[in-house]
Amino acid sequence: MKDAARPAFGTVLTDKMAVAEFRDGRWQAHELKPVAPLPLHPAAHVLHYGSECFEGFKAYRRPDGSAGVFRMDRHIERMRQSARQLVLPEPDAAQLADMVREVIRACREQVPESPGALYLRPLLIGTTPNIGAAATPSTSALLVVLASPVWDYFSGGAKALRIFVEDQKTRTASHLGVVKTGGNYAAALGPTLEARKEFAVDQVLFCPGGSVQETGAANFLLLREGHVLTRSLDSSFLHGVTRDSLLTMARDMGFRIEERPFDVAEMLEWVKSGEAALSGTAAVLAGVGTLVTRKGEHRVGSGEIGPVTQRLRAALVAVQTGQSPDTRGWIERV
Ligand SMILES: *Cc1c(COP(=O)(O)O)cnc(C)c1O
Fold first, then answer.
1. 24, 88, 100, 125 — which has fewest CB within 10 A?
2. DSSP secondary structure, 169-207, as one string
3. Which of 281, 285, 313 to mutate to test the pocket of ligand 1 (most atoms within 8 A of CB)?
């Protein structure tokens, strides 16, 4: 397929999904089904009280026709943690892994050539029909695994991002930053659209009270030769598997990894000569070219995607796609 003809990320689904129901206090056997609308009562808990969480990870096509799933165990653990924090029935790790494997097997022909991939999207929603349940957890739930063929995020040529530094508004309630839930995206959407309109940026970096956290859907890293600085894990932001993978690889490549809180002033000082990038499953590592504050614009390094960003991204993509050996047990072949 020509790049121009490739659909945008997430707009195409494969034709099969896996569905499991939580009812009568336990997870029922899951089923593989054609992708179709879900039966959902209009009083379902999720539609009124936002009891929802999801995951996103990739499986890459291997030369032998199998699909290599990247760090599925970490994503499943994170989904179980999200469910616990939202007081939703916790998915069974073994069952969810089986659901993912079954979807991949059913959709094997639809896995694009790497660096395209099959993007896997487990979704958990509270389904108890009761509009009086604002302060009561849902006792029934649906767990669904969708899959979407995605092509290289940067197939049109990577462009350095323009990012607005939001030092007032928050992305999420402080205890929910670590939860991958739709409500956090809803909270970030308004400020992101406003900043796009006012400052012509791609994304918003949330730095409430001046403390740098992350963007609406990606973690934030400062980089320079031999050195990475990123926020230490706390409940204010999503603990990205890509972030963890990049830090692990950079450490093995001899980089000094500094994980601690830092503020906007320190970030602006760093980018005079250093690099900045966003990390997440979709784009892996995306270089930042400009930081825009309410007071003005700051060029990041040369204004282009930096060499350290490119090198770390290439190293991780090589492991994900199987061009470099998987020495850490990150890939399961299905
Ligand atoms: C999913 C997500 C990320 C990236 O996590 P990965 O595991 O690296 O894909 C970062 N921030 C937010 C808010 C997210 O929802």
1. 24
2. S-SS-TTTTTS--HHHHHHHHHHHHHHHHHH--SEEEE-
3. 281
